[in-house]
Design goal:
Helix content: 10-25%
CATH architecture of the largest domain: 2-Layer Sandwich
Largest sheet: 6 strands, mixed
Number of helices: 2
Shape: globular
CATH class of the largest domain: Alpha Beta
Distance between the termini: 35 Å
CATH topology of the largest domain: Secreted effector protein pipB2 fold
Number of domains: 2
Number of strands: 6
Strand content: 25-35%
Length: 158
């Protein structure tokens, strides 16, 4: 199924955000709960594949849009697969649930849609708490106990 819109977004405040994927097909939107690291991994792999095919940047004129915080979530994402069809230029994204009883969802994107998604998704991921320049862990507004400074990480939120 070809999607009209495919976007990633975060709901909530940095340090307490919920990440979602949202796909709109034939006017019907579906949301999926996803981990921040999964959003980043999908976006980075998409950009790597687009770069390899010479199509990185083809979606600069597209806006993938955001996600709707009030939308019900279909399922939590357990895994993702990304496949490029060089003959048609279509990209297949398969979204797997953490629950084996949920069938995988397959969406077809143009390379321009995937490029726009990846660019925007990396901005969403980067919009969280800043990383500590010494250890790379996320810092709360009041700082954190850096392990490189012999800090105690028992209360650290990833």
């Amino acid at each position: 199924m070809t999607v009209e819109r495919f976007a990633a977004g975060a709901i909530g405040q940095p340090g307490d955000r919920e990440f979602r994927l949202e796909a709109v097909v034939d006017g019907a939107a579906t949301a999926y709960l996803i981990e921040k690291i999964q959003v980043a991994a999908l976006a980075k792999e998409a950009q790597a594949q687009l770069r390899e095919s010479g199509n990185l940047g083809v979606g600069l004129g597209l806006d993938p849009g955001g996600v709707d915080a009030d939308m019900d979530v279909a399922f939590r994402v357990g895994g993702l697969h990304l496949a490029f069809d060089d003959t048609t230029g279509i990209v297949l994204v398969v979204i797997h649930s953490t629950d084996d009883s949920d069938p995988p969802v397959k969406v077809e994107l143009t390379q321009a849609q995937l490029d726009a998604f990846a660019r925007d998704a990396l901005i969403v991921v980067a919009g969280g708490r800043p990383a500590c320049p010494r250890c790379g862990l996320a810092m709360d507004p009041d700082g954190h106990n850096c392990p490189r400074s012999n800090g105690d990480l028992r209360g650290h939120r990833p």
